[in-house]
Amino acid sequence: MAEQYGFFVDSSRCVKCWACEVACQQWHEIKAATVHRREVREEVEGAFPNVKRAFTSLSCMHCENPACVEICPQGALCKREEDGLVVQDKTKCIGCKTCGTACPFDVPEYLEIEGGGFLMDKCDGCLSLGRAADETPRCVNTCPTKALHFGKLTDMEAMADEKGGARLEGETTPSVFVARRQH
């Protein structure tokens, strides 16, 4: 396999403006208040008046060992050879939700489809929009504070190291690095 791609999220730069979420929903024509391919999460610690907050924009982790791919009974999910991104073939998805159960990060979400039933939805790195290999996903392009980065995992790791960040932990080996705000 070619080199794995992934994300670096610099939480010290994220201001929870939701531009990444909105861009993702609009580019993918996802109805507001339904699913989030990308979601800004908030962590709070401490008690007033010493409260510390950090925001982290996350999507599919495009794991090196994705549990969702392994468990899908229809083979609707696969890990691409050229960049390691986990993508979905919506024509094979039956909405059984086994991938959502298997994902340790609770990433897959389900869209209600016309006529009843559900269809899984998740980040595909904007490949479904025709993103070229040398382009970045729309969420990264839209981030006004440059908190989001996408590229070869070795490059993302180097950026995280510069900021005191680390790879997210998990037995599926997520392809996401995060630098938290220094307190």
TrEMBL record:
The keyword Transmembrane helix does not apply. Residues 5-35, 51-83, 84-113 form the 4Fe-4S ferredoxin-type domain. Transmembrane segments: none annotated. It holds the Pfam family Fer4_11. InterPro entries: 4Fe4S_Fe-S-bd, 4Fe4S_Fe_S_CS, ET_IronSulfur_Cluster-Binding. It comes from the Bacteria. Keywords: 4Fe-4S, Electron transport, Iron, Iron-sulfur, Metal-binding, Repeat, Transport. This is 4Fe-4S dicluster domain-containing protein. It comes from Adlercreutzia shanghongiae.
